[in-house]
Amino acid sequence: MTATVTRDLARAPTRGLARAATLGLSVALAGACLFAFVGLNAEGYWTDELFTLFLVNHHGGLAEVWRRALTDTHPPLYYFLLYGWGQAFGLSERSLRALSAIFCVGAVLVFAGGTRRTFSLNARLFAAACGAASPFWFIQSQNVRNYALCLLISAALATLAIQARVAVRAGGRTPLWILVGLVLLGAAGAFSHFYAFLATGILFAFLILTLNDWRLRLGLVVGGLAILAGELAYMRVLLHATQQNTHDMWFRADAGFFAAETFGALKGLLAPAALIGVLALAAAAFWPRRERAITRLSPDAGWSVWLGAAMVGGVIVAGIAISLLFAPSYSNMNLLIAGPYAWPALAALADLGAGRATGRWRGLALAVPPAALVLQLVSQAERWAPRGEPWRETAALVLQQDACAGQPIPVLLPARFGPPTPFFRTLARHDFYGFYFRGQDQRLAVYREAELVDPAQNPTLKPRVAGPGCPVVAWAVHDINRPQAQALADRLALAGGARPGAVRPVVFETWRPVWGYAKRIQAGFVFLRTDAR
Fold it and tell me: Which of 338, 348, 524, 530 has its CB 3.0 to 4.6 Å from that of 394, i.e. a possible disulfide?
């Protein structure tokens, strides 16, 4: 006889182990949420965050936020929220990143609390802890970009969708508050990120096709068309105003790029510890053996797995199609906006693994996932390490050069961030290099690399290389690595009339979280005359 997985996973022989699993998963989730607020100012803002600061660092109100947001490629809702937050709490790293931490913590708590009628407590804790342990969640919880808000919106939409399924299967209609919540959150997602807009459309289509509730269907059709109309109107305005060349960015539209970004999204979705837990649960649920409890998922849990598959697969297909037909935009970060839709599948696997397992297999299903996720907290030590780009640190070194007081400082334009237009040159001077330069951004002269090594266009080059006086020959952050920096140093020396080696790059290293460890990278350089300290 087939038995449905119930909310209580603990059976009499293993009740103590089940309680220990609950405790371990609770510690893993609480620890990850707590660490989201630790080390908020351990690193300075990186390039994308500094661009976000450009959008909200003023006192012109929401109208000015709207005007500046039109120079970007993202919808403006997050910027509106961030502007109000910044006006209330300031623009420091600790203040602005705290909002992202709140959004990310809210995402896992909304899911864990909102799906209690579908999954057991341990299953919800496991899925939420996997989400909070993921590399993407780890990074976005302290990143002043719109991705944290999108994670919260996706988690809330996934939770409401599951609640709508529960209500419909119980024989009633979807409560009006769920329908209104789906439409409002769908609109919020659509005006926070264009991939959240794609996800909203896929979600509405899935609900219309799978839930037999005509009021829900009609409401989603009307609400979806209203969202689509608003999004198209905004895109029309944006395409005429944006300073970005959407066809000349770092995205590509070839099979190799799509595969690499999809694989990157998979790594961003599950940390190594979470993967260990998933494998343990999968083994407990599906490994062939003589004795296995016969069980299946509840209909609502099974439906939620299909929801996750449709959402993740749909966003992948839609992202590739958009990149091929319109403009390249496919990236692992954009895909991971739909990451919370995969959390129900993790919860379902936890219920299935614990429900089917017997004996030692049940011990495996209950013990390994929480143990692995608790150990994952060790990686949270990276919260105290600089993980972005050293705009703050390189600016400090340049400001320490007393011989350069009041003199112009040549800086390298971040070529991949935008074209060499007056807008992007001013952005680089005032809002990138100038943000940590203590209000002295007028001293900064922005050059492309070819201009930087040309004495006719860079009049400070030969005097700086020859010396004495100010030893700062150039300053570069973003879009440059150590071999490129060494090659540029030699070109600067030769163009300045000296031998290679006369200019040396002072290297600033940071740590980039990779799957399961942190990778040391060289992300910023100050080019000094060799005789300078």
Answer: 524
